[in-house]
Amino acid sequence: MDPNDRLKLVLAGIAELGWKNSIDLAATADASTRFSVPGLSADEVHEALKDAAYAGLFAGEPSEGDGSMRTWHRPYLSLSGLQSVGAWPTADRPAVTTRWWDRALAALVHLRDNPPHAGHISGPRGTDEPTSPVPDTDEHTYWLLLSYLLDARLLRAIKQQGSLEEVALTPAGSSVLGSGARGDGPLTSFSAAQRELFDRIAGLAHELPAHDREFLFAHRADPARVVGANNIDFPVVGDDVSQLEKAGLLKWTSQNYVTGLNFVVTPRGFEVYELARRRMADRLAAVERDVLTYLRGDEMAQRFPQAFRLWLQADQQHASRSVNATVVGHTIREAMQMFATELLDRHRVDSSESPTQTVARVRAVINARRDDLGEARSEVLDALLAYWGTVSDLTQRLEHGAQKEGEPVNSEDARQLVYLTAQVMFELSRTLG
What we know:
This protein has helices at 3-17, 42-54, 79-84, 99-113, 139-151, 171-177, 192-207, 238-246, 267-295, 298-303, 305-319, 325-346, 358-399, 411-432; strands at 22-24, 58-63, 71-77, 121-122, 155-160, 163-169, 215-218, 225-228, 232-235, 250-256, 260-265. It is of the alpha+beta class.
């Protein structure tokens, strides 16, 4: 594996940790401290961390002992390290949706709406309890988060031993928030279960008429349940509902500790729900845009000129007003056959299989490159090969007008096939190099 790729994998793993007092790279380490990266040995991870520390992307105190130990005390990424793995905005990438950045927004909103008394914030008290004002974040992670905000000049403070004094948002920090919602920050600062629960409740409320948007939290039931109009009734974890209420996403409308607690989604809750939906749509659109930009660009045209010509033809066919899905299916089938042929030529691999046997021909290239690519990338390519086979089946369905299934094909089927073909060509081309 390329050293830069290895470094990025290791840094991405550290970014997911939050705060840890120590990490142990040994395979026999306790699960609470063990840190590993799939596909990399403990020595490779250790060397990558030393390279990252030298480059100013990572900080920690290594302990090697007699040479058999691989332990790092108080490990964390620097702000530059977070930016290097796309977890924090940069000038070139000003908009990101990651857990660290969402925590940062949550912290900024809290500090704006609840300025610390006399500008003072005490340091961690030595507990792992989630006592910070940012949901799903313990006090050590919150302290690290404040250091990132200071380094990013979104927050200003005077650092004292074990505390921060004269804490306040900078103009840049206030500008980041703009006129957004007040409260405890974006939904993504919560646990996955809490995000899923809120998305379900807010989604149901969004679809109901206004007079039916009040729910009952039957907290004494076993298990606890949320009940509402149109036969809405599902089990929940009681603390998850309480956390969403404390964050201002839900509001109690009546509280009967025998029958249950009635609640509604707050205006801020609907705002957060809509924001999450827009972000997801934007992220999916960005992925599709990146793939299609690559397929329509010079790199694809140079690497696979004939396949590119045919795919572009199918792209234009599906975009026309008189789109014919069966014609698109036929053109995509030819594009996939040509891509497999040009892939063989590009990697100098021979295959006795017929041009129509695209799965076997692509598999021949993957098998020829396994030793060079390593186990991790080979597994990705095996998955892509299965994906390729599924897309190939879709071309047959469209080309023959779905006669076997008895369902007519339409312009949406054509659009889907064109995009899925673009995606699998994109990933195969990039992964194989």
